[in-house]
Amino acid sequence: MTQDTRSTKLRFALMAGGALVACGVVAAGVLAADSARLRYSDADRAASTAAVAQMDAAQARANQTREAAQKTSYKGF
Fold it and tell me: What whole-number distance in Å separates Cα of residue 56 and Cα of residue 48?
């Protein structure tokens, strides 16, 4: 009994095409995940910079308040 070569070639072509599609899907997923990670890092970095600026401003106000309190405090002791 002879084997039909057309079905073997068709099967190989379909499997090769499916493998290429699967590789493309995986590559697209990896690129999308990396892009999302980079966007999150940029947003996180901007939020962190803003938080540091707010903490610096609060520290400066606290230093001014402490200096004013030391100037006006009772020094009799």
Answer: 12
Which tokens hold the place of 10?
């068709």
Integer Cα distance of 27 and 20 in angstroms:
10
Domain range summary for the chain, segments of one domain joined by +: 20-66
DSSP alpha helices (H): ranges in 1-77? 5-72
Distance (Å, whole) CA 8 – CA 6: 5
Q: Which residues contact 61 (CB under 8 A, 6 or more apart)?
A: none
pLDDT per position as a tens digit, 16-53: 999 999 999 999 999 888 887 777 777 788 889 999 99
Cα–Cα distance list, 72 to 23, 53, 59, 65, 66 (Å) = 73, 29, 20, 11, 10
